[in-house]
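User: Predict the full complex structure for these chains.
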Amino acid sequence: MSSPDVDVVVVGAGPAGSAAATVLARAGHSVILLERGPFPGSKNMYGGVVYPRILDQLHPEWWTEAPIQRWITRRSTMVMTDTQALTVDFRTAAWGAPPYNGATAYRPDWDHWLADKAEAEGVQLLCSTTATGLLYDEGADGRRQVAGVTTDRPDGDLRARVVIACDGVNSFLAKEAGLYGEVDADNYTLGVKETIALPKEVIDERFGVRDREGVDIEILGGTSGVNGGGFLYTNLETLAVGVVLKLGKLGAQELRPEEIIANLKAHPAIAPLVEGGEVKEYSAHLIPEAGLSMMPKMTGDGMLVAGDAAAMCLAAGLYLEGVNFAMASGIYAGEAAAEALTAGDTSAAGLAGYRRRLDDTFVLHDHRKLRRAPSLVLSDRVQHLYPEMIANTVERMFRVDNPSPKPGLRRILNEERRRAGVKLRSLVSDTIDGIRSFG
Amino acid sequence: MTEQRWPEQSFEDLIGTTRFDVHERPHITLDDTHCRDCSTRACVVACPAKLFVPTSDGGILFNYEQCFECGTCYLVCNEEGALTWTYPEGGHGVVFKRT
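Assistant: Here is the predicted structure of the two-chain assembly.
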């Protein structure tokens, strides 16, 4: 058993890794933060909204320096069919002033900034270095304890007392450590996105915002019949438009991801917002979509798992969050690792403070509360039948069909429900499910 | 649908907007002898970088160069042994843009 090079190796300089490293460095521990990309954030993309309030404790007044694009002051939820769209549109001035709520930001900017903050605390950041596997020591009672990582650098083994795997949605380290159960493609969605340049004044005008105000539009039904969702976010001088697609369903039909985005961009409710812009970047990433049901064991002997690597994304229809869960789980992993190092016990038992913190905070509270939501939102009825039923109901509600008198709302809803092929029993049970999922 | 107001954009132009620092070692390899019996060919539709192209003789042609390293292909693949999947050498592969 050779002596460790460092107290902790954190793998992955995303929001989870940088948060964990920052906490540990502040507690006086030596930390190496590995990043396989040429700079932090270079491998990372997302839809486009971050909810940073968890940073209040890590970087107070973070909003004075964070590389955000726009503050979300207008949030729209849109249900669409091929030719219709119903939007619930909320705006508030409150989210445009400190401490804010959500913001659009480019992940290469955001993640780079968080890693810079970690470096400023004394963390040693090693970019362009891929962790290729785990190193083990024989523990006192014969158990194998994670003791570092192998990397693709010459003489690149790094020994540490604790490894924190923040290596992203595919987390080969957590899988190698046996912390994941069966990996099922149906637990994942593919996110694809186009970043489209438009002048700031054009974006402000089209979306009805000013200065740094921004808009977040979440879309149900805009994915060409593939279970998933669409999104459209405003950055300062670009728009992010894209779709999230359930892997199993995507592979079982004919339309390709970029064609599904093209269809969304051509939709009558979306085209006027995005047309004329030039595509600056096309990007894609997997999302751990299934929440609580797919999470791995978070703690092993000498090892913790945080962020997407621990399937922390909250993909619950109305709520689409991930970076906040990554940062929070990183903070708690850092705290638990510091605690274990101080106590001199970095076995799974010594690192148990991590799971306790996740259990006691919003991280697993929110995931437990919304555990039914991901499957409900991606279910076939919600995806394929309800958008049409809802849009047709509203269209008839507002259609003036003179000389016919107005039909009652209940009659319209009943007829449209039948026309969409939804059984009353299913509608009632889904409504109850929805209230249970989000209530 | 409204009239098409987007210029036709080829997939090559679209993915041409993304930066890839390609390493000489293919980080993903495909043994397409496994693909001939595959009935789903989910990778052909699902890969966001369109890296899996069916050939006329029933195989699949794969090129690793413009890969997002997302993991879709190994998750949707149902032919054991067809794909070997690793990350590219450190510092290589896809590089998303900073402002």
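The beta strands of chain B are 19-21, 28-30, 52-54, 60-62, 83-85, 93-95.
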